[in-house]
Amino acid sequence: MSQSDDVHTVAPEMAISFFKEIMPFNSLDDVTLSRIATHCRVDFYPKGTRLLTAGETDITHLYLIQRGGVKAFIEDDQGEISLKDFRGEGAYVGALGIIRGTPANLNIETVEDTFCFLLPREIFLELVEGTPAFAQFYLKSFSEKIVNTAYNELRHHKVSQRSGDDLYLFSVRVGDLVKTLRKIPGDASIQDAAAFMVEFKVGSLLIHDPDDDDNIVGIVTDKDLRGKVVAAGLGYDQPVETIMSGPVQSVLSQSLCFDVLLKMMETGIHHLAVERSERVIGVVTSHDIMLLQGHSPYYLFKEIRGQQKISGLYDLAQKIPEVIRGLINEGAKAGNITQMIAILNDHILERMLTLLEAELGPPPVPYCWLLMGSEGRREQTFKTDQDNAILYADPQSEEEKQAAETYFAAFAKKAIDHLVNCGYPLCPGEIMAINPKWCQPLSVWKGYFTKWINSPDPTELLHASIFFDFRSGFGDGTLARQLRRHLNAESRKQDIFLFHLARQCMSTRIPLSFFKNFIVNKDGEHKNHLNIKQKGLTPFVNFARVLSLKHTISETNTLARLKALHDGDFIDHRLWAAATDAYELQMQQRLIHQLAQIEEGVLPDNHIDPAQLSDLERRMLKEAFTVVEKLYSVLDRMYPTA
Prior knowledge:
The protein is α+β, with helices and mostly antiparallel strands. Helix content is 48%, strand content 16%. It contains 23 helices and 21 strands. The protein has a 5-stranded antiparallel β-sheet with strand order 1-2-9-4-7. It has a 4-stranded antiparallel β-sheet with strand order 3-8-5-6, with no helix packed on it. Strands 18-17-16-19 form a 4-stranded mixed β-sheet, sandwiched between helices.
């Protein structure tokens, strides 16, 4: 079935109301909306209906999903299905084929009962041709699909496929996992709540205000019943609100399951309410997310959190690449992958230092384990070198000073050894907590930054720049925040410091010749290879760092810094979008290159061979490098040499 035989007219007011809620129709004026609404129709498609068939269906209408959802997929000659994406409420189907004048390029099939508004092809083309902003929305969407095609080539050509890698974290919206809303008033008894959970075979219940069914005030889980009722001997006749947790953390129904998984891992909360149109429609649990996957990051997360011996963390850290390969195969972008690597690495560190504290006893003064460089930016790839330090509160006496130096020296030595056993290599430059220079009280750390900023020596700054990306990895985060405030205050006062950082940033040559060919190593171990970290990624990292220090932005992650600079109107939208896409594409190249090396039993590095890339990959990489010229021009105007 390519299109329903029973297409129904719809009240124009209903169509206009729908158009005003979705992009890019919400940018059209009321007169235009009223006109196109008269041409609009609505149709119902039961679950499993084939709307379009790739290479066959002539697309006569733009499909706009009002309710329900569809999947987009292709089939090869052997009938093997490759899932491209899911599209839900507010999404469109058929625009590319209409604009190009070609048959459908994907199979489209409903995954649940679905209602679609149908806009005739001729009306849609009039809008595209006569409204530049309207056309720009679709052109941007199509360009993103080209980028996705490049990512697909990277995954399929560079990473071997394995059975069981059929994952959906980046295609399924969390609202699709929610079935029925189960809730109970707060004045109901604990026994009634338990009986309700047994009857409907659920592990949690939302609690609402007795006087307002829509006002969700808390949540009760089976863990609460065990810990707060049975173990504590609480009476079953007590109101359930006495054991609930509140307020309830929530996520939007359109959130990707991956983003929800990240929130669960960052907060340690296993049950989240799901909202749609400002109303709670149900609950999603960590179990729901784990059912989507084979090598679930959450399984590894739980193993790390539950480990009781430091030595038990060694093998768990080695499992991270397998988790990441699953994310790459599913279609994760570099920003998603580095977030997940950072979270898992952070939990390894947190669990290891917690157990180490228990072994050595409590520290004599509060402290913070600092992460710097790529760790500080949450941009680790596969086993980045250690870059860490210890920042502790200023001792109040000579005795406390001696105790702190003795304790943290022993603590750092054991911690660094354990991290090496987990697979995190030593820093060749000895920027680690085991180096006494980088294990100091707050006042000394403030002195370091004051010297770097107020008396900037270009050579010393080159080595010190790694410290400007610090963040708290474990311990008392207020110490790191105090140091960050000191850094921001000092950097605001010294423009000459930022001048030197900016000029150093621009000293990295763009790896393209006059004729836009790649500049590679001419000899040595990595002959005809390109160091994508040093030549490609570092200019973006440095650019974001300089401008963030200038505008006292405390973010350390490069993508987050670029977003904050854009949101603060410090860089324009086009530069932000271009820099973000270019940075992510290169990081994707780096990650997949390293994963392929790991699978071949080779130590991962940053040296890629342009000759091994596809034509599309080479073109996308060259375009990414040209963005560096735009970044340099911004810095050159801001910090001219004359």
